[in-house]
Protein: Kinesin-like protein
Organism: Seminavis robusta
Amino acid sequence: MIEKKKQSNREEKDDSADSVKLVPSHVYVRIRPTVFDGSGHDQDAPGVAKSLAGYSDTSITLNTQYMFSKGSNEYRFPTQVFAPDSTQEHVYNVVLPALVQQVVTHNDAMLLSYGQTGTGKTVTIFGFEPSLKQQSATTNSIDPNWGILPRLTLELFAKLPQSTTVIAISAMEFYLAMIVDLLQDDTDQNTVRLDAHNKPAGYRRVVLTTPTDIWEIIEKILARRSSRGTHMNHTQDDHAGSSRSHCAILFTILQYDDDASRFRQTQFHLVDLAGAERPSKVGTGEDNLQGSGATAFYKLYRGETMTAYEEGCLINYELFEFCKEIKMATSLHKTKKPYMAPRQCGTNLTKYLGRCIDGRALLAMIVCISQAPQCGWETWFSMNYGTDLAGLCTPTHPAKWFELDTSVQKCVQALQKAQRTLEDHEKQHAGSNTHPNARRWHGQKRTDVREAAEKLKLLQCLQEKIKSAP
């Protein structure tokens, strides 16, 4: 009887899977302009066996030379290839409309920027730093050097009715296997944890009242994000150097339906991944060239300072693990089997990103590449990475509607319960929180309190808007 019941349940799942529509991921390629500055992307540097041979609107061609033989590879996966002279506005107008429509209507969306160090990922997401420091105080003029983040903020405010919508923003960095809240001013409470479903918990949600609020957010993110100068991405007066962490920016949008007295929540994930690189290329001195993957994990366990080489090893490991998850999800979705993000093994980054490739978000990626002749192998690897994601088709899971007053009551109860649990633990273990397990448990309960409080804050903000609406 038990076996028959299990079999019938499996058949029901398979029948429901047949009715689910698979949505393809979109992968774009952006080519960095040529430079002659002596950096790792200098166009006059000697070449390697791989090189960028040419491109069209939807393809990239790489040349390969081995001994006396020559060949070429053409990649046709890009939805669009952005030439070196492509403007920030053009990139936004091609990539973002479908993603914004998805978030505004019924589902989450995620946009990733991936590529070698110094190819323009952060510039694509944020914009050129001088333009961000000299931002306009009005929403009527858009600086041509602005990236996706400020433009997206303007569009969300333009598309959504503010009387029945709450727009909040959050920012986290995944650095050395830890998640840090970049918008939390209290450094004792800036640690973010993943819950049992791989959702970030305990991070701050900042409600945006006007589009110009984004400038203070951007200033905090750029000032607090981990970065350092490398051979591939020099530190300058108007540039912080190479991003050494993966930065995730979350727009949380609550929309209220007056007719049905209900609301739904959607999120836009904007992820600026740290640069993929050969660790031996990034060093700025002999000290930074020392180390290995083994010493990187040893120092990570010990909490010791790492060299740029060791940081590069960890970055590559996380990107490689995410690529494995993409391939696994692709094979499972093709056979109409559900994909589940890793819960035990894997880093926080792979768990967080893995949760978004199971159908909860419409996916897109901008792969940034270099024209420099010495970066041919990195360009080849980036093309293969883009090929893997382009083959991923995910099922769609529209956001659910909830009754607002009921949700507020549940959040109040969850907050009170989390506070009581934390208080009881502090009374029982007063002065004895020295054991690592005790500190870890205490930290988890503090995270539960912050998470419940942040969720309640957004719901109450939506309630206030509804009550004050004409």
